[in-house]
From TrEMBL:
Subcellular location(s) per record: Periplasm
Pfam families membership: NMT1 (PF09084)
Keywords: Signal, Transport
Protein's UniProt name: Putative aliphatic sulfonates-binding protein
SUPFAM superfamilies hit by this protein: Periplasmic binding protein-like II
Main location (coarse class): periplasm
Organism name: Pseudomonas parafulva
Coiled coil: none
């Protein structure tokens, strides 16, 4: 099916005219996020987005989720309006459940920001060594796709391992207590495990999974409030640039919010993320289709998905 585009016609000029009129009755913007939603976490902590929208009579409420799949399920159910960044795999699973989604921004690839971890003294040295092993992974996360691709590179499939589907907190506990042989996760959990548990990286996403993160909105909200998505997009882009230019300051803010991680761990995690916010393009959805097809081939997706059967918001860029 064709991609449906929502465009901000002349918004760069019209925003100051349109927004005050919309503000005559206070609106609320419900944002769902995860701990790894760095840019929106920084916006929340620094108050930048609230400041940007308050003058237009828009009040933000924040709703935290343990991982991307329940976050997009809440978006599909109408419990939140906008989703913070989720891994490229998550929209595919949500589409399979019948969700109607609007992509409105992406972070360019960060393949090294997710990895397959093993204990430092593990005998596992190659991807082929995963055969017959118990591997913790979060269902539908970017790390789930990384595991599929890593197994394929080694000539294996999901049938050759015993997956343990665990959210990051439970995956960390299982890994720390040697209940699993390997753990596939993303930053800041990778950096934390490396520094606190002396975990060893068996493989990261380089050459296996590009790991783009996407920002989404419900179709209804995107169609009714494109001017708000424009403001969120601009705020994200500016915060990404600020994070790249001020890594130490960002780490000081994020550390306490990420479970009191020390600044060195946060810096290590953030160094592997691009934080480069860009519009979503047709070729990005081609990669989404490859992800969907890979999950379907492994029997991990309940039905085929047309990754183009979504709406894409096209922001006005500076």
């Amino acid at each position: 099916m064709p991609i449906r585009y929502l465009r901000q016609l002349g918004l760069a000029v019209l925003a100051t005219v349109l927004l005050p009129g919309i503000a005559s009755a206070e609106q609320s913007l419900r944002i769902g996020y995860q701990k790894s939603s760095t840019l929106l976490t920084l916006l929340k902590a620094r108050g930048g987005l609230e400041d940007r929208l308050r003058a237009q009579g828009i009040r933000i409420t924040w709703h935290e989720f343990p991982s991307g799949l329940p976050l997009l399920e809440a978006l599909n159910l109408g419990n939140v309006d906008v989703s913070a960044d989720v891994a490229d795999t998550v929209p595919v699973f949500t589409q399979a459940a019948g969700a109607r989604l609007t992509y409105f921004a992406r972070e360019t690839p960060s393949p090294k920001a997710q990895a397959i971890l093993v204990p430092s003294d593990s005998p596992l040295r190659t991807l082929a060594d995963l055969k017959g092993k118990r591997v913790a992974v979060t269902k539908a996360a970017g790390s789930h796709y990384l595991l599929i691709q890593a197994l394929a590179k080694a000539g294996l499939t999901f049938k050759d391992i015993t997956p343990a589907y665990l959210i990051p907190a439970d995956g960390r506990a299982a890994f720390e207590n040697h209940k699993v042989d390997a753990w596939v996760t993303w930053d800041p959990f990778v950096a934390s495990a490396q520094r606190q548990q002396n975990a060893r990286i068996l493989a990261d996403g380089e050459g296996l999974a590009s790991y783009q993160r996407y920002y989404l909105a419900s179709n209804d909200y995107a169609q009714a409030h494109p001017e708000v998505l424009q403001q969120v997009y601009l705020a994200l882009r500016e915060t990404g640039e600020w994070t790249q230019a001020n890594p130490a300051a960002a780490a000081r803010i994020l550390g306490p919010l990420w479970g009191n991680l020390d600044s060195t761990t946060v810096l290590q995690a953030n160094a592997r993320r691009s934080y480069d916010v860009q519009p979503v393009k047709p070729e990005n959805l081609e990669e989404q289709q490859r992800i969907a097809d890979a999950f379907l081939h492994e029997g991990l997706l309940p039905k085929a998905v047309d990754a183009r059967d979504v709406s894409v918001f096209v922001p006005s860029t500076p």
